[in-house]
Amino acid sequence: MPSTDSALPTPKVLRNLGPGLITGAADDDPSGIATYSQAGAQFGLNMLWTVVLTYPLMVAIQSISARIGRVTGHGLSTNLARVFPRWLVMGLVALLFIGNAINIGADLAAMGAAARLVTGWNEHALTIGFAVVSLTLQVFVPYHRYVKLLKWLTMALFAYVAVVFTVKIDWAQVALHTIAPQLPKSGWIVMVVAVFGTTISPYLFFWQSSEEVEEEEAKGEAPLIENPRKARAELERIRWDTLVGMGVSNLIAFFIILTTAVTLHARGVTDIQTSAQAAEALRPVAGELAFFLFALGIVGTGLLAVPVLAGSVGYALGELRGWKCGLEHKPTEAKAFYIVIATAVVMGLLVDYSGLDPIKALFWSAVINGVISVPIMAAMMVVASRKAQMGIFVATPAQKIFGWVATAVMAAAVIGMFVAA
């Protein structure tokens, strides 16, 4: 019987990419797809500029997250606790847990709804099935094998690239509206806040930082602060990994907005609340192929995002509590870590079955994520600039500038969200 390693080889193009690629791809989860779909349906081509703007900001903050993990050999929680009081970091992690559980529930529900549209099977049974599959893979498949599956799942995102080529597009108009959008007098600020909030999310900070530590340990290597000889190659790898990963994330978001703009918005369909609803709305407008690809993408991205959402909470809480953490460990070796992951997934399922309005639940999840992202980003910038923690590998001047700009933009987005509410 062949091993998992040989049965699931990593494509050469993906081999040198890792935490950055997976983090970026996981950002386009079903909840994010719903936000981008609504942006395109409601405002047409006039929201394309948002994902162009978020790209450099996302690259800056995620590369800092990865840098902190690889240099110090510790995840974000451990490093934040060296800047903030421990009780405050614990409060932020608790809010992260709540926000992620809601997001997991919304993503699982979206996957079930999308799969039902394609198969006709029971939606709740499919939702439970996806939760079980996701949790089983996280718990029982070692990280060095599991990461290969996650890399393959990033390919699901390109379903949204394929959708674009099933419809007719005036690329000159796309370029014009991206560079010079024609925004209405009201309503657009809320959508800009939503796009920024779903693109720059705190769970991604924790995940990429911890995965750098996981990769380091899997290779038997030391943190860069202890082994600076590998610094040049490793920091260059992180740079390219993050550039590509965030590029994929924002490119797919661009194509989702574009697809719904030229199909749904162009035909007067302007109210999309879920990703599955977007797929269903595409069917009569863009045809069966576009519908199938869109629905397939929802399931694929959900299978990628749920482990990242649950895993980031496991790392955040586990590191802070001093537990043994890591997907490379067996369940018997890191019981508390896996219990947190399982609890997050189960709570997500309970949200799906609770009768709560999923749209309102996602709104409050966005509020929570927005509130905690700003202090976390500010603390990350402080950590990345401290020689006491980073040694000679403090953030570069460009990272500091773009990182603080990203923090300021997110702070403005949070203020805008509360004003708009």
Q: What key attributes describe this structure?
A:
transmembrane helix; symporter activity; transport; cadmium ion transmembrane transporter activity; 421 residues; mainly alpha; manganese ion transmembrane transporter activity; 0% strand; Amino acid/polyamine transporter I
Q: How would you describe the overall organization of this protein?
A:
The structure is a single chain. The protein has 421 residues and is mostly helical. It has one domain (17-121, 149-304, 356-420): Amino acid/polyamine transporter I (Up-down Bundle), CATH 1.20.1740. The chain has 20 helices and no strands. Helix 16 (288-321) packs across helix 17. The radius of gyration is 20 Å and the shape is globular. 54% of the residues are buried. Residues 1-7 have low confidence and may be disordered. It is found in: Membrane. It is a multi-pass membrane protein. GO terms for molecular function: cadmium ion transmembrane transporter activity; manganese ion transmembrane transporter activity; symporter activity.
